Amino acid sequence: MQSGRHAEVSAQDDQGHRAVSGDCHGDHSSPSGSDRFERVRRAMIAFRDAREWKQFHDPKNLAEGLSLEAAELLEVFQWKTTDEARALTGDSAARAKVAEEVADCFLYCVLVADAFGLDLIDAAQRKLAANEMKYPLDKSRGRRDKYDAL
Ligand SMILES: [Mg+2]
After folding, report:
1. How many angstroms separate the alpha carbon of residue 65 from the centre of ligand 1?
2. What is the pLDDT of residues 18-76, one digit of tens each?
3. 122 C-alpha vs ligand 1 centroid, how far in Å?
4. What does CATH list as the number for 57-140?
5. How far is the CA of 76 from the centre of ligand 1 (A)?
6. Can you give the residue ranges of every domain in the chain?
């Protein structure tokens, strides 16, 4: 394991919350989505800081880490046909591996956002709103063209 590379969450945040708690589907006593995000974000920062890894987390290293984790996700599908890749959604081992890699990507996004003082949820909402403008329903429904070709 490279120092500072792995972004596993096993820590508790500064309020003693576990980083990743149980599933909240249909359970209204569980934290809201924004609370769950904030708990994970704080746990990731606590995990990093407890290990004194921030010194390694310059923006370039974080972007490299994110790209490497995205490549690990892509590796799941290497040499698979499109149909074979689709079939993996029902494969428990593939689902576990994908869960691990998307979590790594997500956690790196948390760290990149932290490095730039960004609110990741706000940034995502803004990007989604921008995409709504770039891909209006009447022009993009059922089409795979890039926005400038609609
Ligand atoms: Mg990984």
Report:
1. 9
2. 444 333 344 456 678 789 999 999 999 999 999 999 999 999 999 999 999 999 999 99
3. 25
4. 1.10.287.1080
5. 11
6. 7-53, 57-140
Rounded to the nearest angstrom, the distance between the alpha carbon of 100 and the centre of ligand 1 is 6
Return the bridge partners of 18, or none. 12
* CA 101 to ligand 1 center in whole angstroms: 5
Separation of CA 30 and ligand 1 centre (Å)? 28
